[in-house]
Write a structure and sequence with these properties.
Blueprint: H1 8-11, E1 15-17, E2 28-32, H2 45-54, E3 64-68, H3 77-87, E4 93-96, H4 99-112, E5 123-127, H5 136-146, E6 152-157, E7 160-166
Parallel strand pairs: 1-5, 2-3, 3-4, 5-6
Antiparallel strand pairs: 6-7
């Protein structure tokens, strides 16, 4: 015995998919337009349109934007559409909701575009630890996409993975 340490993981067919590798760069912003409402609770169309027209939309260049109204007002759908129309030439992505929904929507698109060719017929680990926050929904979505093509699916790290699926022989 030579005493040589052999990395069996490196020599295996095991593939690791790290969603952090697909993390789209770009600032995430919340645009709360409650300050554009009369007394913070009433949308007066003329005043609202004026606030929208004076807003510096170019500040959202290449940013991901969640549009919301934090006041307890009833907001007509066209108000979100008007803001979206102004944001569209600048923002990478626009959602109506909070930053959590924004991140979920960003990753829905990311996961849908991950090429799966290199994972076909392989044992795959979806890496669990990352420095950037990956939404739980992204893990569910990539699991759904991988199941039809992989031989087995695990979650975590090669040294301590949680088995999720194994193709029946």
């Amino acid at each position: 015995m030579s005493g040589e340490i052999i990395n069996r993981v490196a020599g295996s067919k095991l593939r690791t998919l790290d969603l952090e590798d697909f993390f789209p760069e770009g600032e995430r912003l919340l645009l709360d337009f409650s300050q554009w409402l009369f007394e913070g609770i009433v949308l007066k169309e003329k005043d609202f349109r004026e606030s929208v027209s004076k807003h510096p939309w170019d500040a959202y260049q290449d940013k991901y934007v969640a549009v919301t109204c934090s006041s307890d007002a009833i907001i007509p759908s066209w108000a979100y559409l008007l803001i979206s129309a102004e944001l569209a030439p600048y923002a990478k992505k626009i959602v109506v909701g909070d930053l959590e929904l924004l991140e979920n929507m960003i990753f829905q698109e990311v996961v849908a575009n991950i090429p799966l060719d290199s994972y076909i017929g392989s044992p795959v680990i979806i890496k669990g630890c990352s420095e950037k926050k990956i939404p739980d929904s992204a893990f569910a979505q990539i699991t759904q996409r991988l199941l039809p093509v992989v031989n087995s699916l695990m979650f975590g790290e090669a040294c301590s993975s949680v088995p999720l699926f194994k193709k029946k022989k």
